[in-house]
Hints:
The chain has helices spanning 5-17, 47-52, 116-138, 145-165, 169-176, 232-235, 360-374, and strands at residues 25-26, 43-44, 56-59, 61-76, 82-85, 91-96, 103-104, 109-114, 187-191, 196-200, 208-209, 216-219, 223-230, 243-247, 254-265, 272-279, 290-307, 312-314, 317-324, 327-332, 334-339, 342-347, 354-358. A 6-stranded antiparallel barrel has the order 4-13-16-15-14-17. A 5-stranded antiparallel beta sheet has the order 1-2-20-19-18, covered by helices on one side. A 4-stranded antiparallel beta sheet has the order 5-12-10-7, with no helix packed on it. The chain is built from 7 helices and 23 strands. With 378 residues, the protein is of the alpha+beta class. The relative contact order is 0.20. Helix 1 (5-17) packs antiparallel against helix 7. The N and C termini lie close together (7 Å).
Amino acid sequence: MKITFTRALLLSLMLAGLGLPVSVALAEQGPGEAGGHEEGGALKMAAAEREAQGIRAERVARRTLSDAVIAPGEVRMNAYASAQVTPRIGAQVVARRARLGEQVEKDQPLVTLSSVEMAGAQGALVEADREWSRVRKLGREVVSDKRYVAVQVARQRAYATVRAYGMTEVQIERLLADGDASRATGSFELLSPQVGTVISDDFVIGEVVEPGRVLFEVSDISRLWVDAQLRPEQAVKVTVGTRAQVRVHGERWLDGKVVQLHQRVDEGTRTKAVRIEVNNEAGQLSPGDYADVLIETADSEARVAVPQESVLLMQGSPTVFKVEGDELHPQPVETGMTRAGWTEIKAGLAEGDEIVVKGAFLLKSLALKSQMGEGDGH
């Protein structure tokens, strides 16, 4: 089959415009040598030329395809990364040391309290500490064993009391530094138990608060939970560690993973909750937001599958480029499901076949241009 000079020149210019060596062309075929490749024959391109053009090939293999479930969800605080700060005894708020929205460190003072009950415990500790220091200096040679042990236990009991009331070891050391009972004012500080952000500080200066009253909530909001509601038949396909994505207000998707599976079906909605942990370092999510949730679910059967971008439509049929040495053959295939960027191949390829997985569209363009050239033969 001949190609006119004009067509040959046009084909050369088009190939050069694509940045390809002009030597790239259809493999020569005699009559009846199409070999079942009805897309116009094979393209000849050496491995070095393919690499220069960014064309990459891989072996076909079986893989488990992932499906995706889309469900509504709600953003929640990560309870495992949150803490409440409460007094253990009745006290009055003397000073605020942190504010709503502030980032705090572990053991950072949050609030100063004052308590008559704490003052009594502090005074008893100072007195017990003094007596213990005196008896210890005298030693067991002077003090009876009974007296020695009684004083030691009294000091330990007084120390444990102020610790139970909420003073830290550092605060106690400062109180006992000079043994001055006048420092037993009942004042003490509540510290942050963790690094995080103050998300609640519902109190006012001068307020008298009861034991257990939540004065501060501190949470690491860089890691939030999203509870998604799935139908039971969807939930059974999800496992801990399954990849997920979350989006609120139509913004970009954030990556996450399933960390918990609720065991009960909600009686009202007949759904099961799946808990996802999301990296929220950018601050895109806020507790209480409603969210769109996409959860990958795995197919139980491994299937022959290829990257979705490697399958192109040529002359109305799904086609891949099969690599045989320096020849790239357009190979019609029968496709099945497409999941997460992978397309199932039901017929036309076998495990171990080598196909083009990157740059297939460029090859399609070359094949079509070559066919245009042949069409003018006579």
